Amino acid sequence: MIVIIQVINSVHQEVVKILENIPGITWKAKVHENMKDKSNVPLNQIYKSKVLPQAKQASKQFTPVASKEAPSKQNTKVTSKEVPDQWDWVQMNPGCSDVVPDIGHCLSPQVSVTNTFSDFRCFQGKDPERIEYSSQYGLSCDNHGCNTGVDNFPVWQYLIDIGTVPSSCISYKSGVTGKTYRCPTKCDDGSQIPSLIKAKSVKQICLYNGDNHEENIKQALINGPVSTTIKVYEDLYYYESGIYQYMYGKEVDYSACEIVGYGEENGVKFWKVKNVWGREWGENGYFRVLRGSQPDFGGECYIEEDCYQAEV
Question: Any stretches that span the bilayer, and where are they (predicted)?
């Protein structure tokens, strides 16, 4: 067993070296110890699938390639209000947005969407101070569970139709155990569940109608964060800092996340995104991803394809 672990760790370190030597790479890689015990990072699969040779090939062909399955869309110019060159909700209002969740062993969009809901209520002044709302309530009561899809919209719809309670009433447990649990009838401390807090509505920011998704998202961000998903490839687990773009590896899954801003560094445009893998990963729990690189294919790793913003 010790030998297997040593071999796997060696593979991890070799992958980081390969990523570091890719010409023109815009981000830095490292091995994250806190990612090794997560159910969505099967270390033995990394070795058995022989991704190492694939990574070496990627160093010669590192330009991201859009999926052939992506729907064909025409990119048209958006004519609407001008937006600033950069935007960052975390810097402008850290009290409302700088809470990074850790999804743990539960693969569900509930955690990210509910965190975005908490952020948005704070931004809009619905809560005098930020209240962390319960993703566990939705997980346990909406019958979606920990491994039942990555679509954000059903979670938003549940927040509109049913709502949720503060995390101080129902805390997040599924991240530790991977279990969903029954819909609670009382708070964790045995007290009565308070009135449920709902969202008013949700609108899709990115539509298959030929719009410029990049500009739509930028304009929406002026009102608050945007809920989205990103296609996760193996190399994203190694992200440490910089502007991420896909370099190598197999598709692992989709992951819900939250766009909190945008900007440009050394001529490279990026989205600033809050992830759900805790503070130890990335740039203090956040990552920057290439912005507007593939407008006809939903952006880098489809981050500009399935975006929503709620009215609270």
Answer: none
Residue in the structure block whose two tokens are 């190492």? 52
CA 16 – CA 31 distance, rounded (Å): 7
CA distances from 227 to 126, 133, 187, 204 (A): 18, 16, 27, 9
Count the neighbouring beta carbons within 10 Å of the beta carbon of residue 10. Answer: 12
| Residue linked to tokens 């062993």 | 105
Under a CB-based contact definition with an 8 Å cutoff, are residues 284 and 88 in contact? no
CB 201 within 8 A of CB 160: yes
d(CA 93, CA 40) in angstroms, rounded, equals 32
Question: Which domains are seen in the chain, by residue range?
Answer: 87-311 (3.90.70.10)
Tell me: the pLDDT tens digits for 174-214?
Answer: 999 888 889 999 999 999 999 999 999 999 998 655 567 89
Closest CA to 260 of 291, 293, 296, 302: 291
Instruction: List the end-to-end C-alpha distance of the chain, in Å, as a whole number.
Output: 51
> Does the pLDDT at position 36 exceed 70?
no
pLDDT tens figures, 155-176: 999 999 999 999 999 999 999 9
Q: How far apart are CA 89 and CA 306, in angstroms?
A: 20
Greater pLDDT, 139 or 49: 139
